[in-house]
Amino acid sequence: MGTAADPAFDRETLRRGLEGENPDILLSLYADDAELRIVDRTTQPSHPKVLHGRDEIGRMLEDVYSRDMSHKLERCVIQGDEAAYSESCEYSDGVRVLSESMLSLRDGKIAEQTLVQAWDE
Predict the structure, then answer these.
(1) Residues of the chain with pLDDT > 90: what percent?
(2) Coiled coil: which residue ranges (predicted)?
(3) What is the separation of C-alpha 48 from the centre of its chain, rounded to a whole number of angstroms?
């Protein structure tokens, strides 16, 4: 459990951020210099999409949360300065997306994230 000097990553804030309709709560969990690597069908492991800093990550989150889709936090495990979570999403037309994220944490914030996602085709 975190202290004032070493705050804990907040699972409930993660849930509210992921499942909400506004990306600001989720963005608040990222460190200013966070790095997000995304691996999927179009950005494969040898050439992942890499976003640097809260500004780039925020623009991506704004795009995602502008879509007509729902998000649900399925599982979240936090251990020390690492965390992992599963998220399921569904577009209004029924297309589903599943993502898995591994996080490195610093001072209770996401410093690095690797997100692997797959969706119905």
Answers:
(1) 89
(2) none
(3) 15
Residue 103's DSSP bridge partners are 83, 113
pLDDT, residue 2, reads 44
- pLDDT tens digit at each of 121 positions of the chain: 444 445 789 899 999 999 998 899 999 999 999 999 999 999 999 999 999 999 999 999 999 999 999 999 999 999 999 999 999 999 999 999 999 999 999 999 999 999 999 999 8
Contact by Cβ (8 Å): 58, 27:
yes
**11, 18 contact by CB (below 8 A):** no
Angle formed at CA 70 by CA 44 and CA 30, multiple of 5 degrees? 60
Residue of 102, 85, 80, 81 whose CA lies nearest to 35: 102
What are 90's two structure tokens?
């569904």
For the record, the structure tokens of 96 come out as 């589903």
What is this structure's pTM? 0.90
Phi, psi (deg, nearest 5) at residue 27: -60, -30
**CA–CA distance, 4 with 50 (Å, rounded to integer):** 31
